[in-house]
């Protein structure tokens, strides 16, 4: 009953249970944080807009992205993955989401930023529907915890449109 | 050396009835682990509810040896989600983030493109030759939860099998010699 093996087993079981419980509480505590992120995105320039030889439209553009995601950081946050996606509808597809830019935000100090970038990933449509197209730019964020549940949310900004002609 | 002597004595004194009890309790441990695994499969709807991260392609978010909990629901796949997918001709599933989604108007089928956060380019080089998009049937689940370091146990056991045998042997000996 009080052998070495029995005691070691009891100690290990208790340690693992306690650790799991602490992890669960840390993850649960994320729910009580106040979150009021804000974002603003402008299209500074359409650098290139053409139809590829394969028939798909491709756009290159420069964005001005300003965001404040500081309130998303809690003591259980390891990093935030933020990205901007263009979202639009075409006759063929009910939803198109194309990532244009993304970044890993490692700490709260970096979570308030303003940058001007051209798209990091190619903005290519499936087809040639982009002339005069109205689309949304959405800032998504994905909070990666030190332990526990991951969560994600977004801010949708609408009213952007592409030129009527290739250039 | 009292402990070892005791162990030897207890092995010597094993009765048939005691042996049966121990066999059954060992069986109970194995089957209950199986029950938990199968129940998790039912609840999450994913054929492997827990995966261990094996590569550094999602660093610094997920490091080698971290554990991910998967969930596979009917919800459509959206950009930004971290999905686990199988590629034809590869044995090991990959955990990467969705960066592009094109969803069909009438059928609801999706074309998905993924990328590892720590990789320079997208995953088209990892896909089967000539494959441009992932489809629904490639995707095993999306990551919903995260636990650091725990997966090292399985990584060590698969890479150094000798440790696995020592561990199983020690546990077996403990079960045989325990008196309760």
Q: What is the number of beta strands of chain A?
A: 9
Q: What is the count of distinct domains of chain B?
A: 2
CATH level 1 name of the largest domain in chain A: Mainly Beta
Largest sheet of chain A: 4 strands, antiparallel
Principal-axis shape of chain B equals elongated
CATH architectural designation of the largest domain in chain A: Sandwich
Q: How is this fold's topology laid out?
A:
The complex is a heterodimer of chains A (167) and B (180).
Chain A (H helix, E strand, L loop, with lengths): L3 H26 L8 E14 L5 E12 L8 E12 L4 E13 L6 E7 L4 E2 L9 E12 L2 E2 L1 E11 L6
Antiparallel strand pairs in A: 1-2, 2-5, 2-6, 3-4, 3-7, 7-9
Chain B lengths: L1 H11 L3 H29 L5 E3 L14 E5 L10 E4 L8 E11 L5 E6 L23 E9 L4 H8 L1 H17 L3
Helix pairs in contact in B: 3-4
Q: What would your notes on this structure say?
A:
Chain A: This is Signal peptidase complex subunit 3. The complex is a heterodimer of chains A (167) and B (180). Chain A has 167 residues and is α+β, with helices and mostly antiparallel strands. Chain A has 1 helix and 9 strands. In chain A, the strands form 2 sheets. In chain A, strands 1, 2, 5 and 6 form a 4-stranded antiparallel sheet that branches. A 4-stranded antiparallel sheet of chain A has the order 4-3-7-9, with no helix packed on it. The longest helix of chain A is centred in the N-terminal third of the chain and has 26 residues, at 4-29. The mean pLDDT of chain B is 86. A 6-stranded antiparallel sheet of chain B has the order 1-2-6-3-4-5. Chain B is of the alpha+beta class and 180 residues long. Helices cover 36% and strands 21% of the residues of chain B. In chain B, a hairpin with an 8-residue loop joins strand 3 and strand 4 (94-104). Chain B has helices at residues 2-12, 16-44, 152-159, 161-177, and strands spanning 50-52, 67-71, 82-85, 94-104, 110-115, 139-147. Chain B folds into 2 domains: 2-44 and 153-177; 50-149, Umud Fragment, subunit A (Ribbon), CATH 2.10.109. The interface between A and B is large, with 38 and 34 residues. Strand 8 (148-149) of chain A pairs antiparallel with strand 6 (139-147) of chain B, so a sheet runs across the interface.
